[in-house]
Structure formats: C-alpha cells, structure tokens
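Thread: "does anyone have the structure for this chain?"

Original post by V.I.:
We have the sequence but no experimental structure in hand. Need at least a predicted one for the grant figures.
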Amino acid sequence: MGDGMSLKANGSDPSHAKVNRPEYDAPGESMVHRDVPAVGATGLYKWYALALLTLINIMGSIDRAVISVIAEPLKAQFHLTDKDIGVLSGVSYSATYAIAVLPAGWLVDRRNRRNLVGISVAIWSCLTAICAVASSYAMLALTRLGVGAAEAPSNPGSMSLIADIFPKERRNTAVSIYYAGLAVGQIALFLIGGWLLLHFDWRMVFLVAGAPSILLAMLLLFTTHEPVRGAFDPQGAPVAAKALGAKRGPLDVARAIWNNKPLLLTIPAITIASGVPYAITVWSTSFFVRIHHMTVGQGVIWTGIGFGLCMAVGSFVVGPLADRLSAGEPRKVAVIPVVTTIVAIVAGCLMILARSQSLAIVGLGIFAFMCGFFYATGYSIALLLSPANQRGTTMAAIRLISIFFGSGLLPFVTGALSDAIGGPGSIRLALLFTVLMLIIPAACYGWIHRMLNAERA
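Reply from O.Q.:
Generated one for you, tokens below.
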C-alpha cells in the first residue's frame, strides 16, 4: 500500500479506525481509494517513530548550537570578535535556512515527509562533520550556510508527521517530547563538547556532532512509513497530500494565517520565545568565563547541566500536564506560556545580576526549566491551530521567522550590544536586555487566550 508498511488495526484505539484513504500510485498520478488504518501505526510504532524524530531533533540542535561550545577557542584560532561568533552561530545558518524553508514547507504539504526529513538529515550531518577540517573563518561560514539550507525540511516535516501520528488529545505530550530533544541536545553538546575540548580540540567537537545523524537518517528512511494526512482532524476523513494542497499556494496560506489571528500571534510569540533561550545558550559560557571567572571547559559543563537538563525536565513535564488540563484545546494550553515566560524573566534576571557563581547557576536552571514549558507549548498551540492542508507551510513560515529573527538575529544582537557597551561587564547588560524581551511572548500568549475564549463564548 502506497509507500509504507501495513500494520494491524486495533478497534479499541480510535487512532486505528478504518478510513477510506485516497492515495497516489505514484507522484503526479490519479488517486485510488483503499481501506487502511487511519494512521497506519500500532501504539509501539508511534512511540518508535516519535523517538526517531526526537533523536533527529537532538542532533539538529547540536549541529545548530555547536558554535556556542567552541566560541572562545574559535576566537583564539581565527582572531574573531563577538560579532563574528554571532554571525557563525546565527546569521550564516539563518540566511540559507530562510531561503529554503518555505519551499521545503510547500513540499512537506505535497510529498513524502519521511523521505524529505531523512535526506535532509543525511546532508546536514555530513556538512557539520566537514567543519572539522575548516582552515579559515570563511570556510566555516560557508559550511554553516549549507547546514542551514539542509535543515529546512526537518522541523516542518517532523511536526506534520507528529500531527498525523498522535490525536490532538495527546499531541501536547508528543510535541513536548520532540522539543525536549532541543534541551537533551544541549546537554549532550555542552557535556560531551566540554569533555572533548578538555581532551582534544574544537575540530573533534565538529566531527562528533555530525557523524551519528547519518545512522538516524537511514533508520528513518528504511524502518518507518508515511502516515495518513489529516486522520485526526475534525473536518472529516483523511485525504491525500496533493488533494489537500492542490489549490493552496503560498499566498493562499499566507492569507489564511493572516485571517487566523490567534495563529498569527503565535509567530512573534514563538520567534522571541525561541530566540531568547538560544541567545542565552550561545553566550552563557562566555558569561560564566568573563563574569564568574570559570575556565571554558567549566563554563561549558555548567551551562550544559544548568540549561540543558532543566529545560529537558520542563519539556517532559509540560506535555502530559498540558494534555490533562486542556484536552487538546489551544485556549487552555495558552495559559501555560503566559505564566512561565513571566517566571523565566525573573529567573533570567537573577542569573545575570547574581554576584555569586552558585546563585547564577540556580537562576539559569530555573530559567531553563520555564523555557521547557513555554517553548514546547508554543509550537503545540500553532500545530493545534493549523489545518492539515497547510501544516507544512505554516510550520515552515513560523520556523522561517523564528530562526531568522529569533535564533538568527538575537545572538548577533546580543554580541553586537556587548561589543558596543564595552568593558568586562558588557555581556551582563547585553544578556539582561535579551531576557527582558520575553515580555513580548507573554503578552502574545495572553492575547491568544483571550481571543480563543471570546470565540468560544
């Protein structure tokens, strides 16, 4: 059947209900209808598929953030400024990602998502490993441009897959586990990267960051299948990807997002709520080295423990909690990021302004724990508000803006602001400005909650 394996249905599980599924015999061919399981997956298979996507997200987060671990050694090797590091960690990656992500989202809505994600993983992992032999700043920047373009299909493709594997009543849990991969990646990056820096050099960090993803790409391509689109959507029976998106071009999707005000508000909310934690991870090692006089290795390890572990715990906790409190209703989910962004602001200020090293680490841990809450629920809200026929393009648009203006520009702005202020304490004031930007997503999620409540009334 199609391009996937058939699995047994279970009548007691609504996710296994039979539906009349339109499929294409081949790309561009006419549809044929077959009775198949609604998502084509048993309970164990769902978690296996989610585990693979989460591991890919872990490796993607490592590849994106690897510069943050080796910022100081790179500065010494190539005589770079903070602004140069900001370009490597943000702008060079974001530029090509911005160009590629919308076409990638368009393909996600129309083609085999598993294949798109698997191929992109294989390419970006090879490019990250190639950075290990870089002989100049220019070579590093060019390779990072390639990593950005190659990663474009991964997030929108994975999110679209998750939406068709898990019903909305359990989707918060699935999304939170997937986004916990970002935090787990930070733990692995900072702890393993710190150990590698202590015993080898920055080139080995690049090599280890890139190699394992090739295996994950092969597992995704050869042990999973493409699920039915729209199986859990209230508008009716699932339909084929081409039928879902045949009459919806990029302008149609942009117009639909513009007219869906709650969904529209998730864009600035997610942009800032993802960019601020990323900027903190990029600069926290330098912060601990300059302000609290740690070694680079110590700063990397404490950042990995303080941020990565606490954010991972927050992400794992928030999913089941959100499912229990909301039953898949985005208006109820929106309360969580309102509260947790406010708490994160307080914790971030504590970390930055604390005079003692231990208090700064405590503040970083609380900040990261709250990040796990509002990061995952933000994307979950966007996924719940997006119809099946435009999830790929919608998530790609959100990723485009959040990566370019959030994760791309915020580390650069933080570094540039630190350079502009000057002096040994400049990084402290730059990070304080960055943390206070979380006021924006707090306001956006509050507005979303209010609008959805008004629509319900």
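V.I.: this helps a lot. The domain at 14-456 is CATH 1.20.1250.20 (Growth Hormone; Chain: A;).
O.Q.: and Strands lie at 18-24, 31-37.
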